[in-house]
Predict the structure.
Amino acid sequence: MSSVALEHDQIVTLLQEKLGNAVVCDSSVLERARSDKSGKVSSGLPICVIEVTSTADVSQVLKIANATNTPVVVRGGGSGLAGGAIAGPGEISLSLEKMNRILEISVKDRFASVEAGVINNDLNEMAKKQNLWFTPDPASRAWSTIGGNIATNAGGLLCVKYGGTREVILELTVVLANGEIMTLGHKSIKGVTGYDLVSLFVGSEGTLGVITEARVKLRPVDHNPVWTISAVAENISDAIEAAQDTISNYLQPSILELIDNRAARHIAKYLELDFIKEDSAILIAQTDGPGSNSEALAIKQIWEKCGLTVEIETGREDLIQFRRSMHPALEKQGNVLIEDIAVPVSQLGKMFLEIRNIEQEFGIEIPTVAHAGDGNLHPNFIYSGSTVPEEIWLAADMMFKKALELGGTLTGEHGVGELKRHWLAVELGQSQFELQKKIKSIFDPKGLLNPGKVFEN
Ligand SMILES: Cc1cc2nc3c(=O)[nH]c(=O)nc-3n(C[C@H](O)[C@H](O)[C@H](O)COP(=O)(O)OP(=O)(O)OC[C@H]3O[C@@H](n4cnc5c(N)ncnc54)[C@H](O)[C@@H]3O)c2cc1C
């Protein structure tokens, strides 16, 4: 046995002494920990997967990892699209999936207290019984965990009205790199004592500490009818103008989605529907709340002024399902790199033009959907083979730079992870990049938490 293997065995023994059967070395479990949904796979198996069931377990793991200088990769549902949860040789994969208890739902104070491994949908099902709901709605909500949603500041279709995950976090229980357990934030809705460490942990992608519990805000379920406004625009410019005018006319849809014709063609094929005309684009909005009907009519009027033929009805979940079918539709075509740039809403038209230019320059197709109401675009690259071809990274690189030039960002909701770490300093600028690295080193002086994620090693 080589000395490295012996050291790993010793680490496993130490972990087993404290955590017993929670330490899993079964090769199929280790294999699963090597990847997430980004298409990235680590270079080999991690030392072990630890299926923790309590905050105290997490503290034990981090104490041992700290004492033995062993890197730890935190994992929720493994649905991430940035390679943040993938664990490799020499690393412990710390799985929160079994910390899946909903601890409390309070109608009086309108919050839920949950363990980090609770699945987003499960919380919503439970909250619904008390006429409450949890607003963050990533398309992965059937498999992603609340901890993962917080660690990536996940968003979804409803962000345009209800914001991302950050907006709903009151309090977090975290375990720091040395095993210390700390509660951050406030039980009250308001609270500004000290620095806002809750917000710092939201979107920190497992690099600052392990989130083990969260107290999250809930909203009352709204029983007003949801109205759906939809149109097939002759061209994408008309659809973008209609989306932008919706926002600039002070309207507040709960969903405002744009599907370009390449994306629509793939989805239509997948769902076996008739395809819409070339060059067209689909715009879908929904309104909810007490003024949903009048707001829907106002949106219809604005879209008609932009030359669109508009349909307005209550319900129409089939249209939302059409939009949500984007990912499975593209997966039928090959492997998919889902990008996630965001620009100010006013710059959407220019960003789409840049995407079309990049298509021409690289001779590829980039089917794109956009959360048009908040300027977050998901341009998709379809490829064959096990890794993203260099040519596609060059095209993505050009797209990131164009997004930054338009005042945008590399990632609206998926995170940096391993996939985009290379571009982090480009967006932040060198001095902010250095400042952020210093923040990481305060929380994790030995660099053991998710090494190589967000920051390059
Ligand atoms: C089909 C599909 C659709 C998607 N749609 C959306 C979407 O609409 N919006 C969106 O925002 N994302 C979307 N995603 C991406 C992904 O689902 C989200 O990023 C989600 O929040 C990840 O949650 P997870 O539990 O799977 O986390 P994982 O993938 O396990 O981990 C993601 C990151 O968070 C860290 N992490 C996980 N749990 C913790 C914890 N408890 N403490 C500290 N760090 C932790 C990990 O280390 C990693 O860096 C989609 C993914 C797929 C496959």
